[in-house]
Prior knowledge:
The structure holds 2 protein chains of 2 kinds.
Chain A: E1 3-9, E2 18-25, E3 28-36, H1 43-47, H2 55-60, H3 67-82, H4 88-119, H5 124-130, H6 132-153, E4 162-163, E5 166-167, H7 173-197, E6 212-215, E7 226-229, E8 234-235, H8 240-243, E9 244-247, E10 256-259, H9 269-276, H10 282-290, H11 303-323, E11 340-348, E12 351-359, E13 365-371, H12 373-390, H13 397-409, H14 415-418, E14 423-428
Parallel strand pairs in A: 2-14
Antiparallel strand pairs in A: 1-14, 2-3, 4-5, 6-7, 7-8, 9-10, 11-12, 12-13
Chain B: E1 9-14, H1 24-32, E2 41-45, H2 52-55, E3 61-68, E4 77-80, H3 101-110, E5 118-125, H4 137-160
Parallel strand pairs in B: 1-2, 1-3, 3-5
Antiparallel strand pairs in B: 4-5
Helix pairs in contact in B: 1-4
Amino acid sequence: MTTKRLSVDYLARVEGEGALDLEIEGDRVAAARLRIFEPPRLFEALLRGRGYVETPDIVARICGICPIAYQMSAAHALEDAFGVRVEGQLRALRRLIYCGEWIESHALHVVMLHAPDFLGYPDAMRMAADHGEVVRQGLEVKKVGNEVLRVLGGREIHPVNVRVGGFYRLPTRRELAGLAERLERAHELAVGLVRWVATFPFPDVERDYELVALRHPDEYPFNEGRLVSSRGIDSDIADFEATFAERQVPHSTALHAHVRQRGAYLVGPLARYGLNVDRLPAEVQALASEAGLAPRCLNPYRSIVVRALEIVYACQEALRIIAEYEAPEAAAVDVEPRAGSGFGCTEAPRGICWHRYATAADGSIRAARIVPPTSQNQPSIEADIAAVAGTLLDQPDEVIREHCARSIRNHDPCISCSTHALKLRVQRR
Amino acid sequence: MTPTAPPRVLVVGLGNPDRGDDGVGVRVAQRLADRLPAGVGLLTARCDALALIDDWAGVDALVAIDAATPLGVPGRLHRLAPGSDIPEDAGAPLSGHALGLFEALALARTLHLPVPATVVVYAIEAGAFSPGAPLSPAVAAAVPTVVACVADEVARLCRDG
């Protein structure tokens, strides 16, 4: 029996440091391991003893691309612990800042990181030489997302304006009017992006994912909802740990999550869309069909179309929120800390980001647990890689490597976030 | 004779102050705050240089200060002048989600976006990039010299264009 081990030592166009090992025994893939060697981050431990006021700003540091996801999940969890509800316009502003994060994160991935895979370029720089106009437009859309974060969050990276109970400062009418103008333009460009990515050549692949996302009675989910899956999960976010488990694996500093007694699952755009397509406005649904998306899409390559579609939705939702905005009396509701525990789960661009905190009477953190999207997707990513490699065993290693790396980029993994934690190595036996 | 507008100059300190000597560009920029002529822009940028593409729109000259890979002499100052010193092709990116200065310049040129006519980079050789560490003594000792050099460079650019 021949043994072959292929490796990709550093994965390009993913965030953080990861590698991939593939072991091939004869004519089958014996193992596919996404190795994450980004150093452990230890955020859960360093939060212990810190005050609830500083917690959203500490967890924002987990990620420079999706800080809002961490701030929102933390704020909701601590409000849950303190028995506080944030409603009305403050709640709407939270959706608005989240729209900004989806716009900037998705625009970056769609245009700069993922599109080169479909058009045969090694990176966006090389793609820009031939597709300058669309790269310029993608950067313009991303910039509008950043602008939403700057206006609502105080700055673009690691915003500082989110607090337990709401915000430190409310945006002015003039600031929001300025945003609306730019969001109109971003919306128009995003519709063009959907139509552009829909023309890409997509491998004819369907994966057997269990999709997991939030579901809200009447909104496409950002901040709230029940945890649902395509195989019947329908639970309160407080019951996350009864439904899902994380385990350590030797090859990764990120924990691997799975549905108890079942296995791998998928979070992120494909899951959100597949479980919530009926919550999208009619015109966004129409654009989805025009782009060739079925109401449930299980082709990981087409996630690029869903991301582009979610940019369109986020622009539209942001414009709706701004149009209906009336300044609330205060930037935040009163918060009385107390001993307790609380849960938060929100939809980061890459999927659900789940937090649990136990607090002391003064509101300081006694225990924290943070489950980022990428660690939840790791087992599904490994299964994708094993499946794609299994169809390419007679191909040269370089071809296998490239297809495996593409399979990983389909899920826009944020490895830096997932490390509590890409090289591709193929071993043929 | 039509009077010409003075050249627009932007000074940018690049780096992460939480990673030891990587923060030297930011430290120099902070020291320059009250030493630059009126009208000269001053910015610090922590990681992603992509946003600089917007910042330098309409700027005639960009002066960037950044830490350089250790080459054996921590604190040694290199001035990368327009032309041969600054690579046209940025090479392999360091991060999947962020661009470096040379990558941002290359991308802007490829996209036919505005790029400053003059780009000068002051690169200070680093000693170590330990998380949470202060500047190493040799790099900290170089700061006043770099501040003076950049101030002179800016004065020259404002005068001569």
